[in-house]
Write a structure and sequence with these properties.
globular; 3-stranded parallel beta sheet
Length: 212
């Protein structure tokens, strides 16, 4: 309580590299808030931006940097597992290598995914009043476990791969089918698997119409 609010998020651009690396390895979602230019310390800002961009690459690659102690024994490696979200005033638009590894959403003024704040106001109210997210997550986990017990895990994996490929092709239709866009389409497909899982849940519960 108090970590996720409309005025407070768990991470910040001013956090140390080591802190962010550990947090990204231990949580399902991690948000680094407010990477902004600093007129007072431009060199420091460049250093923070470079560290964040390196973390974005680590998250995309699913691996972290190995380290050794002075006696050459290996230190613990904190491989990233989180959905990593970053808010920033300036995007690295000229860095095509990095841009191909992220899903970039431009926010103009108060507009985000909708011109109305009503959808996010409803989500905010749900988060404060009832723990619906945990209920949905618990049901989905049990649903996938039932699928595995009934059809076998090979079948579950095959179904998810089919959905993933469908989303990848859909993303390519939107952003173009080229070598530069294939990586971004794959990232979109990974995230969209969550939507497919919600569709499966709604179908099982007979709530397809309510889900819209």
């Amino acid at each position: 309580p108090g970590t996720w609010t409309n005025k407070s998020l768990p991470g910040a651009a001013s956090d140390t590299d080591a802190h962010t690396e550990v947090c990204v390895s231990k949580t399902p979602i991690w948000v680094v808030d407010d990477l902004a230019p600093s007129e007072a310390d431009p060199q420091g800002q460049k250093k923070r931006a470079a560290a964040i961009q390196e973390m974005l690459r680590k998250v995309h690659n699913g691996s972290s940097r190995g380290r050794r102690r002075p006696d050459m024994t290996a230190q613990a490696i904190y491989d990233p597992r989180a959905l990593f979200i970053l808010s920033a005033e300036q995007a690295p638009l000229k860095d095509s290598s990095l841009m191909n590894r992220i899903i970039f959403i431009r926010v103009v003024g108060s507009q985000f995914l909708s011109s109305s704040s009503e959808p996010t106001d409803k989500l905010d109210e749900m988060a404060r009043s009832d723990n619906f997210a945990a209920v949905v997550t618990g049901y989905v986990i049990r649903m996938i476990a039932r699928m595995g017990a009934r059809d076998g895990w090979a079948s579950v994996i095959s179904t998810m791969k089919a959905y993933q490929e469908m989303h990848r092709e859909g993303a390519k239709d939107r952003i173009g089918d080229s070598s530069k866009s294939s990586r971004a389409a794959g990232t979109v497909a990974d995230l969209a698997l969550g939507l497919s899982t919600l569709d499966m849940m709604a179908a099982e519960l007979g709530l397809t119409a309510e889900l819209g």
